[in-house]
Amino acid sequence: MSSETRFPSACSLDVVGIGNAIVDVLVQTDDSFISEQGLQKGGMALIDEGQAETLYKASGPGLETSGGSVANTMVGIAQLGGRAGFIGRVRNDQLGSIFSHDIRAVGARFETPAATSGATTARCLIYVTPDAERTMCTFLGASTQLEPEDLDLSMVQQAKVLYLEGYLWDSPAAKRAFIAAAEACREAGGKVALSLSDGFCVDRHRESFLELVNGHVDVLFANDVEIQSLYETEDFNQALERVRGCCSVIAITRGAQGSVVLSGDQRWDIGIFGLGDLVDTTGAGDLYAGGFLHGFTQGESLERCGQLGALCAGQIVTQLGARSQVSLKQLATTHLN
């Protein structure tokens, strides 16, 4: 079955993402460090700049690379050969330069001017334990300064799909930008996709997310924890039935159990790709969305979209960080053709 989605013929970009522009600092550590620092293993905590500096100094050597959920997805799309753009705010500092260089180097468009005052560039300290679980501490910094007037709506209007992250809901200014961009995309004939981002994020904004899902989003991405949190149930299948029909396409990831794709009364259960030892789960959901959206904008069947997402996720968990060290385009050619 084809995804049968029609996009405006004038679209010069496949996907434009709006999200928090964050530099990831990935540190391999052990459970004792997590415990000593009072962190909740496997969770994502928002921290202030002082806490970020304290944790950074306490950490061992780390890998610094541009990150942020939606930015990771845009990079994945670009690596697959898609036309991707990203909108997000950094500061004119060292970390801002790292972010800007990294995302442009893979071929994604990034043109948002850097802030010249205010908070420093956002960073996420990601602690990866030997079981490949990641614990994240995020200082949002300059990313929260994204205002509606900062948006390049011409880029949004050129996109087949606008992809937004739920984390934007943590900032009132970014939330306003989110809504303005979604309206502009819809008016131009594009589709709106949303990632619920994180179970704790869903807990903070459940009512707003339910309103978004019910009629304002075309493609929804979530994992099993997030979708169950959204509908306040411990029963995965019950959550699936609640969300079915709310959006045109729904893709739910389940870790080692693969993923489920829903559209109308149809369901596809997608298996995982075991491409090596599990090293780090950072970016698995982001790369799944990247593979899925690349297939979606190229007119692939929804089953094929799910398989491409699963393949990209299967690759990224075999390495440290959310930037694939092998060609995703070649990977897809090898495993899906």
List descriptors:
337 residues; alpha/beta; UDP-N-acetylmuramoyl-L-alanine:D-glutamate ligase; five-stranded mixed β-sheet
Structure in words:
The chain is α/β, with parallel strands linked by helices. It has a single domain (13-20, 68-118, 145-336), classed as UDP-N-acetylmuramoyl-L-alanine:D-glutamate ligase. Helix content is 38%, strand content 21%. It contains 13 helices and 14 strands. It has a nine-stranded mixed beta sheet, sandwiched between helices. A five-stranded mixed beta sheet has the order 3-8-7-2-4. Helix 4 (94-105) links the parallel strand 5 (84-87) and strand 6. Helix 9 crosses helix 10 and helix 12 packs across helix 13 (328-336). The longest helix has 16 residues, at 172-187. The chain is globular and about 50 Å long.
Look at the helices and sheets and give the structural class.
alpha/beta
Largest sheet: 9 strands, mixed
Please provide the ordered H/E string of secondary-structure elements.
EEHEHEHEHEEEHEHEHHEHHEEEHHH
Number of strands: 14
Task: Give the overall pLDDT as a whole number.
Answer: 91
Tally of DSSP helical segments: 13
Estimated share of beta-strand residues: 15-25%
